[in-house]
Amino acid sequence: MSTNLTAVLQDILQNTTNLGVLQQHMTPDATYVSLNFENSELKKIMPWTGTHKGPQSLTEVFAAIQRYWKTLDFKVTDAIEQGSRVALFGSFTYKSNVTRKEITSPFGLLARFQGDKVAYVQFLEDSYGTAGSFKIGGSTRFHSDPSGEEVEV
Description:
Helices cover 30% and strands 42% of the residues. By secondary structure, the protein is α+β, with helices and mostly antiparallel strands.
């Protein structure tokens, strides 16, 4: 059974804009969390971020991603299964359709299944790096080190 769960998740990832495939492999109320639960600042840069419900939301998320970036590479390097959960890890390279900047990011994905259908997916990446592929100018000041000084990026 566990090999089948990984195959189901990989089929979803290969068909992110095919609603029929997604409905076949996901529960009707499946939750998809993209990068964070809800971050209004990041949503201004990448509007698909946050929490989404239903297989149709996944098609909308990935259609938006394809409008913003061209996927140059996406590879899964590790898969871990434990009961009704599958975790995938790897990397991807995107190229911004506007700035033409490329970004390579690690990713982690957790899927929880109900039976043989995905009920929950959480996708994490280097959000600072991927959002940076859209940066066209300006700087931001940070002060993270309690004993250090501000830095400007």
